[in-house]
Design brief:
The complex is a heterotrimer. By secondary structure, chain A is of the alpha+beta class. Chain A has two domains: about 5-110, Beta-grasp domain (Ubiquitin-like (UB roll)), CATH 3.10.20; about 115-130 and about 145-245, Fumarate Reductase Iron-sulfur Protein, Chain B, domain 2 (Orthogonal Bundle). Helix content of chain A is about 35%, strand content about 10%. In chain A, helix 3 packs antiparallel against helix 5 and helix 5 packs across helix 8 (about 230-245). The longest helix of chain A is centred in the N-terminal third of the chain and has 14 residues, at about 35-45. Chain A starts with a strand and ends in a 7-residue tail after the last helix. Chain B has two domains: about 15-270 and about 415-615, 3-Layer(bba) Sandwich (FAD/NAD(P)-binding domain); about 275-410, Succinate dehydrogenase/fumarate reductase flavoprotein, catalytic domain (Flavocytochrome C3, Chain A, domain 1). Chain B has a five-stranded mixed β-sheet, covered by helices on one side. In chain B, strand 21 and strand 22 (about 625-630) form a beta hairpin. In chain B, helix 5 packs across helix 12 and helix 10 (about 370-375) runs antiparallel to helix 11 (about 375-395). The model of chain C has no long low-confidence stretch (mean pLDDT about 95). By secondary structure, chain C is mainly α. Chain C has one domain (about 1-75, about 95-205). Classes of the chains: A alpha+beta, B alpha/beta, C mainly alpha. Chains A and B meet through helix 1, helix 2 and helix 3 of A and helix 3, helix 5, helix 6, helix 11 and helix 12 of B.
């Protein structure tokens, strides 16, 4: 395949950055998108250029490290697929492909296509857990969990924390990420004691980190490589209102 | 056996496991261990490298216990560690199925599955702890699969006859890791754990023969920094990426372990490599990694190749009588369900005969046509739908219509840094947990045991044993000259890598090394091949240090530089793996020596000569490593030859 | 946003029902308009209830717009650097993407509408005329462009409601996986009924079905 890539190049956080065009021929349609970038990088190194920095690790769609907004869509055109699992056969021969980093104030660009997503860690840190010190756990079967709840919790817990929801959201909101964690933990019986404080502290941290407000555009769930459903945001709002206006929150 | 490629040293022994009945050893050890005064824990610093299941759970637990933890990972978040990709499940001897499972049976299965090359005390402890792990994870809200009654579901997994595997669809590793990650982040919030993401450990700070800290590189800006502590824990995972193509994540590396090895930490059984039979085959030179397809596919899929060599026809056009269902033919009683190592080797054999399918002839068919005819497409879809989708996404072929192509790939490394019962390496103050150590799986790991071991080490073993070391060693501040020396070594290596400015990319060396390792130290190893590798690897290493081209600067995010450091270590590790494989002239578990097989081509162990752990000591660049043997004794499980016919 | 939007939706429904009175004839319509000003009399003075409604409405509109502006501001803060390539996805349909600029057009329309039929500034008739006369002359066939303007604005109101009503349930946490389809249906139905109800009046006048 022949391709023209227009890739965002930015040498560091202070650099202004710009799109740079590269031509590639002879790309195998069986290569993944990241393998195509590997080929480009090898070519750049051979030509004495600077290879493109991009985040990636497991390359099997689960670690959440790869990103890239491809032709305006996070993780590219194929639904429910991470960039590392996207293959070149999904593109046309001769196509011009734009590659950009996630864009959000809370995800500042580090270099080229690499962004800093530590804001997600800080959101989890502020309450996205169940306090269960090692060794204190009761026997696993002491609390049955209804299967539908366990299944829905699992579905929400599938979130890989890649940030595509933020990248896709016209408001730069991380409501889907928040909603997924709040839904997962809030559906488990073990998550009930901290449920109301969790949602308030996570949402407050979300706002402090500079993410935007949700207007229910639904772009997040379309971009989500794990197809986290939009109703987790409904649940997030429900729990938040109940915690605040409903007075359930402790502190 | 020729001694020309290694030197023999003194035997080593695990001095920490107590004597007495195996069921009591762990309790005894916990009781004998000295405790750290709770008021003093705040002042005791522990460094942890890695945030996977072992590291994440250790950080959370040690932080909760009151220690001052500093934790590092090279990824952008602790949640990305490669434990996240584990699919199948986690074993625990809960006996919820009332099918005769017990701690002793899990212990027995693991020792046998490890082909009698693991330490009984360690394995028994692992089996004991397994039940607590499930309790712990459930309490953290891990959404395990459940039955309609609300209780936990179980399934059976390769190599066992009981149903003891707990799972969360095909994403058990992800869910367990997120549980550990969340517990860790809670400790970060509480101020007990300082977290440093995008930091890579590049050296160990040594003082008086003890591990006292680490030198790390901040991957964002390239700063080389040091951190000192009372003890250092490596939870940095396995080294399967030495093969370039493996199911490991791109960043998985041996650097932390290897740099500790260069300071004297013994490296045990490096040649034990698990090769997983059901991976998606290589599609071309661009290939950067291999993707595992769950082993459960072999429950309903039939493995075959054409009987004729070089048969280019489409699989549907090959009539039944021209197909060789070779696993069913050679192993009539286990058929397609033979253990991983056997299935892998059989696939290699048919491909070596020229009967492989797909690009390059490196693949065999895994055919669901019979299953679809027998069970209906709906049932097959319900069972394997997500796997079929993944396969189609990667290959562009529809497995409902045409058979899948699979090929074995490197998946897990049983070897690792040598540790005693306390999980302390041969360097005092350096502890090694999870896949990075060698301890529990012997020569072969059973399915769903890696997650169990990582969490056992991190949640329950290390937090109990590290206290003993800390309580017995009240260490003062670290001598600044030791710190400076370590920093200088790191900076020196970085400068050297950047200054070569050669004409070959880092990846090209890694690819070539991987090719040598796969060819000569892969599924089937021969003395001749290994000796050839022993010539090729040092030559490639020499070339690397002359011709490698590392672009960019040290003071910035530089992914080429990161890779170069890792590949440099793989180039040394690869040689040690070959030496280990060459010296172990028997076949066992994940190590198959062509010279050691029975008349049917099955692996033949040699318990008289090789019932030991091979713990290797570094003796300098280009120098022959020193072999220290730890004899293995089997008081509870008597070694037998495996048979799956 | 959701709460004020809810108030406005309820008002729109009532307003639309009132408008449909025009099909019952001149007398009924004028009587209804008169009644609006005399609700609660003699217990409360003339126009009390109507004024109260106007105050609540005014407040709702201001708060609704204020929420919209602050959300918009947050959105532009949250993404200081824009994407270079155009985004194509319309995940929840076209309506979502009309919320902001559509809202502005609707706000402008409301100003016109008030100047037209409340303050009679841009109406052909003045305060001497009856409400019915004002309506009929406003949408006279010769003034077809006014009708077009109303129809366009009302279609935008419809789109706004279609997303807004569903979105309000989501924001208030009332949407569950099970109620999703029902709420979507409700939003669509309310939007359609309100829009058609409103549009029917000016169209009927312009086409001479009501005179």
């Amino acid at each position: 395949m022949k391709l023209t890539l227009r890739v965002w190049r930015q040498s560091g956080p202070q650099d202004k950055g710009a799109m740079v065009e590269y031509k590639l021929d002879d790309i195998s349609p069986d290569a993944s998108f990241l393998e195509m970038l590997d080929v480009l990088n090898e070519k750049l190194i051979a030509d004495g250029g600077e290879p493109i920095a991009f985040d990636h690790d497991c390359r099997e769609g689960i670690c959440g490290m790869c990103s890239l907004v491809i032709n305006g869509t996070p993780h590219g055109p194929e639904r429910a697929t991470t960039t590392c699992q996207l293959h070149m056969r999904k593109f046309k021969d001769g196509e011009v492909i734009d590659v950009e980093p996630w864009r959000a104030k809370a995800f500042p660009v580090v270099k080229d296509l690499v962004v800093d997503r530590s804001a997600f860690d800080r959101i989890v840190q502020s309450g996205g857990f169940i306090s269960a010190p090692t060794g204190t756990a009761p026997e696993a079967h002491s609390t049955p969990v209804p299967k539908p709840d366990a299944d829905r919790a699992f579905e929400a817990a599938e979130c890989i924390g890649c940030g595509a929801c933020v990248a896709a959201c016209p408001n730069g909101s991380a409501a889907l990420f928040l909603g997924a964690k709040v839904t997962h933990l809030g559906l488990m019986p073990q998550g009930q004691p901290e449920r109301w404080d969790r949602v308030v502290s996570m949402l407050d941290t979300h706002d402090e980190e500079g993410f935007g407000g949700c207007t229910n555009t639904g772009e997040c769930t379309v971009a989500c490589p794990k197809g986290i459903p939009l109703d987790v945001i409904g649940r997030l709002n429900h729990d938040y209102l109940k915690a605040t206006a409903g007075g359930k929150k402790r502190a | 056996m020729s001694d020309s490629f290694y030197k023999s040293g003194e035997p080593v022994a695990d001095a920490k496991a107590p004597a007495g009945p195996i069921e009591d050893r762990w309790t005894t050890r916990k009781f004998e261990a000295k405790l750290v005064n709770p008021a003093n824990k705040r002042k005791k610093k522990i460094i942890i490298i890695g945030t996977g299941l072992a590291g994440g759970s250790a950080g959370a637990t040690l932080g909760e216990a009151g220690y001052h933890v500093q934790q590092f990972c090279f990824q952008d978040s602790p949640r990305r560690a490669h434990s996240i990709a584990a699919q199948g499940g986690i074993n625990a001897a809960k006996n919820y199925r009332n099918d005769g499972d017990s701690v002793h049976r899990l212990f027995y299965d693991t020792v046998k599955g490890g082909d009698f090359r693991s330490r009984e005390s360690n394995v028994h402890r692992l089996a004991e702890i397994s039940t607590q792990i499930i309790d712990q994870c459930v309490a953290q809200g891990v959404p395990f699969a459940r039955e309609y009654g609300g209780l936990l579901d179980n399934r059976s997994f390769g190599g066992t006859q009981v149903s003891r595997t707990f799972y969360a669809r095909g994403q058990t590793g992800q869910q367990l890791l997120l549980g550990a990650y969340q517990a860790l982040m809670r400790q970060v919030e509480a101020g007990n754990v300082e977290l440093y993401a995008r930091h890579e450990m590049l050296d160990l700070i040594m003082e008086d023969g003890r591990a006292r800290g680490v030198v790390v590189r901040d991957l964002i800006n390239g700063d080389v920094k040091h951190y000192t502590a009372d003890a250092v824990v490596l939870a940095s995972g396995g080294y399967g990426n030495v093969y370039f193509l493996s199911t490991n994540a791109m960043g998985s590396n041996v650097t932390a372990s290897w740099r500790a090895h260069r300071h004297g930490a013994l490296f045990a059984n490096p040649c034990y490599t698990q090769i997983h039979p059901t991976c998606i085959p290589v599609s071309g030179d661009h290939q950067s990694k291999l993707t595992l397809m769950s082993e459960s596919l072999r429950n309903d899929g039939r493995v075959w190749v054409p009987t004729k060599t070089g048969d280019e026809r489409r699989p549907v056009d090959i009539p039944e009588d021209e197909r060789d269902y070779y696993l069913e033919r050679i192993y009539p009683s286990f058929g397609n369900l033979v253990p991983r190592d056997i299935a892998s080797r059989a696939a290699k054999n048919v491909c070596d005969e020229g009967r492989g399918v797909g690009p390059g002839g490196l693949g065999v068919y895994l055919d669901f046509a019979d299953a679809i005819a027998r069970l209906g497409r709906k049932t097959v879809e319900a069972k394997y739908g997500n796997l079929f989708e993944m396969y189609e996404r990667i290959t562009g072929e529809n497995p409902y219509e045409t058979p899948m192509r699979i090929y074995p790939a490197v998946h897990y490394t049983m070897g690792g840094l040598w540790v005693d019962y306390d999980l302390q390496s041969s360097i005092p103050g350096l502890f090694v947990i999870g896949e990075a150590n060698f301890s529990d799986h012997g020569a072969n790991r059973l399915g769903a045991s890696a997650l169990m071991q990582g969490l056992a080490d991190g949640y329950f073993v290390l937090p109990n044993t590290i206290g003993d070391y800390i309580a017995r060693n009240d260490l003062g501040p670290v001598d600044p000259t030791a710190v400076v020396a370590a920093e200088e070594r790191v900076k020196g290596q970085i400068d050297k890598l950047l200054s070569i400015d050669g004409d070959r990319s880092v990846d090209s060396f890694h690819r070539e090394l991987g090719h040598i390792m796969w060819e000569y130290c892969g599924m089937e190893r021969t003395e001749q091949g290994l000796r050839k590798a022993l010539e090729l690897i040092p030559a490639l290493r020499a070339e690397f240090w002359e011709r490698v081209k590392v672009t960019g600067k040290g003071e910035e995010l530089n992914q080429q530089l990161e890779k170069a450091g890792r590949v440099a270590d793989f180039l040394e590790l690869g040689e040690l793996m070959v030496i280990d494989a060459l010296h172990r002239a028997e076949s066992c578990g994940g190590h198959f020596r062509a010279e050691s097989q029975d008349e049917d081509g099955e692996a033949k162990r040699d318990d008289d000569n090789f019932a030991y752990v091979a713990a290797w000591e570094w003796s300098g660049e280009g120098e022959q490593p020193v072999l220290h043997k730890e004899d293995l004794e089997f008081d509870y499980v008597k070694p037998t030859q495996r048979s799956y016919k | 946003m959701a709460v004020t939007g809810g108030v406005l939706v309820l008002y729109l429904v009532a307003h639309m029902i009132g408008n449909l009175k025009i099909f019952l004839g001149e007398e009924d319509f004028n009587h209804y308009a008169h009644w609006l000003r005399t609700i609660g009399e003699p217990a409360v003075p003339h126009r009390t209830v109507l004024t109260l409604i106007e105050v609540v409405l005014g407040l709702s509109v201001v708060l609704h717009m204020w929420s919209a502006v602050s959300l918009g501001k947050r959105a532009s803060h949250a993404r200081p650097v824009k994407y270079q390539s155009k985004k194509k996805s319309h995940a929840q349909g076209y309506a979502v993407h009309t919320m902001r600029y559509g809202g502005v057009i609707i706000a402008l329309y409301i100003v016109w509408h008030l100047l037209d039929l409340t303050f009679f500034v841009v109406n052909p008739k003045n305060s001497d005329a009856t409400p019915y006369e004002r309506m009929v002359s406003d949408f006279d066939p010769s003034r077809w462009y006014i009708t077009v303007w109303y129809v366009v604005a009302l279609l935008l109101v419809g789109l706004h409601l279609n997303h807004g009503i569903w979105s309000a349930f989501q924001t208030l946490g009332l949407r569950t996986p099970r109620s999703h389809r029902a709420l979507r249906g409700l939003a669509g139905a309310v939007a359609a009924v309100v829009t058609l109800g409103f549009i029917s009046v000016p169209l009927s006048i312009t086409f001479g079905w009501v005179s």
